[in-house]
User: What shape does this take?
Amino acid sequence: MKPKTIGRVLGTGLRVAGRMAGQRLSGSTQAGPAAGAARRGPAQAPVGKRLARGVGGFLRPFSRVGGIVWLEVTGLFFFLFVLVFIRAMWQMHTSALQGEDHWKFVASGAMALTFLYLSVSSFWRARKK
Assistant: This one.
């Protein structure tokens, strides 16, 4: 073959291969959309779906661990409020008995119990996961 003929053949073949690759990636074929949809199998799914499936498969093991860590951090955050309300109760425990800060003492106790419940239940849910 002559050099000009070889170049033309390779150039034409490269263009045709590029068009075919572009059609495969876009999911369309020359036979029409109905024929392409009938032949498309799981291996010929659109690139976006395959990418999403791959990323989802990669992140799946981390979702369980991430959920457990989130529950534990939330439980610790709620427990910090328990410490704040118990400290407030300790500071006013002498005046609460004589009636001056009685309602503040009761409100701090109720809030401490509420946040203690939220903290314990968060750790409990993390343990069950």
